[in-house]
């Protein structure tokens, strides 16, 4: 989850910050080379924010479905991240050619796509929609379906307990802890919330762009206001992902609850020292929770106990 956090931070820093500056100045004031570089990295982060989520799904799949495999952990996470970012940089290369500084028909100078004909937008946006949204959504949905099915199946398994009988022999008994444990329920809920947030934030964006490129939407004031909101929804997805993780992280929640309980006790100096210690504890909790596999290890261990 640390990689998702970093990707979301870069998305806010590069994509959102540059758009704010651009909207404030009106025209694009920088040279053409800056225009192409800015657009390139914006598209890179667009791909990366989705592909890192796919990498997390694959890592979770291996941790749940194959918990005893040796080829897991930090090495697998790093390989998945390298692949995700590599594909993001690769698929964004056409942006360096497509976009450039140009003067629009209304006289504004903007960093815009330079097409021989506006009809090129349709195949371009269709390709981007499949690479950024539809294909990753299919992969994530299939992976989490298998993960949830595995959790559900393993939760029904009976645990065998071997104990000593009164006559000195070994006795075998079976125990059943319920259909699904709390840890497995939390994993299912976390997966469902991540997928739901991804769908809710990205579906309106690509649906609106596709309809707009096919000239299906009318040129009205309501369309303009809707475009302003919908085109910022992908950035909202990057903003809420860390919040979702914090909500489902027991370590972070316990650290914040402990800080809140002890925040009003003692003198000012004691409270200050206590707050410093709590901040250190929270930082340690965040560092220890940064590994992707921390959230799924408990579930995998619980499978063996179930």
From TrEMBL:
Molecular function in Gene Ontology? neuropeptide receptor activity
G-protein coupled receptors family 1 profile domain residues: 1-245
Which Gene3D superfamilies does the UniProt entry name for this protein? Rhodopsin 7-helix transmembrane proteins
* Gene Ontology CC annotations of this record: plasma membrane
> Which keywords label this protein?
G-protein coupled receptor, Membrane, Receptor, Transducer, Transmembrane, Transmembrane helix
Subcellular location per the Swiss-Prot or TrEMBL entry? Membrane
Claim: Hydrolase is one of the keywords in the record = no
Q: Provide the transmembrane region boundaries.
A: 37-58, 79-100, 120-147, 187-208
Keyword Kinase recorded: no
Look up the record and give one Gene Ontology term from the biological process aspect. positive regulation of release of sequestered calcium ion into cytosol
Q: Which family does it belong to?
A: Belongs to the G-protein coupled receptor 1 family.
Q: What is this protein called?
A: Neuropeptide S receptor 1
Q: Which organism is it from?
A: Anolis carolinensis
């Amino acid at each position: 989850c640390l990689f998702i956090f970093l990707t979301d931070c870069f998305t806010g820093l590069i994509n959102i910050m540059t758009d704010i500056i651009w909207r404030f100045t009106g025209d694009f004031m920088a040279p053409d080379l800056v225009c192409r570089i800015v657009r390139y990295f914006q598209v890179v982060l667009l791909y990366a924010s989705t592909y890192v989520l796919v990498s997390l799904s694959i890592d979770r799949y291996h941790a749940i479905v194959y918990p005893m495999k040796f080829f897991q952990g930090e090495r697998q996470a790093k390989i998945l991240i390298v692949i995700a970012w590599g594909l993001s940089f690769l698929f964004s290369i056409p942006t360096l050619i497509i976009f450039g500084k140009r003067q629009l028909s209304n006289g504004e100078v903007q960093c815009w796509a330079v097409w021989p004909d506006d009809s090129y937008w349709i195949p371009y946006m269709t390709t981007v929609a499949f690479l950024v949204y539809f294909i990753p959504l299919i992969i994530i949905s299939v992976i989490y379906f298998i993960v949830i099915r595995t959790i559900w199946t393993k939760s029904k398994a009976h645990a065998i307990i071997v104990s000593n009988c009164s006559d000195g022999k070994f006795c075998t008994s079976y125990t059943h802890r319920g259909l699904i444990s709390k840890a497995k329920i939390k994993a299912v809920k976390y997966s469902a919330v991540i997928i739901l947030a991804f769908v809710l934030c990205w579906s309106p964006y690509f649906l609106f762009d596709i309809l707009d490129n096919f000239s299906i939407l009318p040129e009205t004031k309501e369309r303009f206001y809707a475009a302003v909101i919908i085109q910022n929804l992908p950035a909202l997805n990057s903003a809420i992902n860390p919040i979702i993780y914090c909500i489902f992280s027991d370590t972070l929640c316990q650290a914040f609850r402990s800080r809140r309980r002890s925040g009003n006790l003692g003198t000012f100096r004691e409270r200050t020292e206590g707050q410093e210690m709590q901040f250190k504890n929270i930082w340690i909790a965040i560092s220890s929770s940064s590994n992707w596999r921390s959230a799924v290890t408990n579930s995998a261990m619980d499978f063996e106990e179930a």
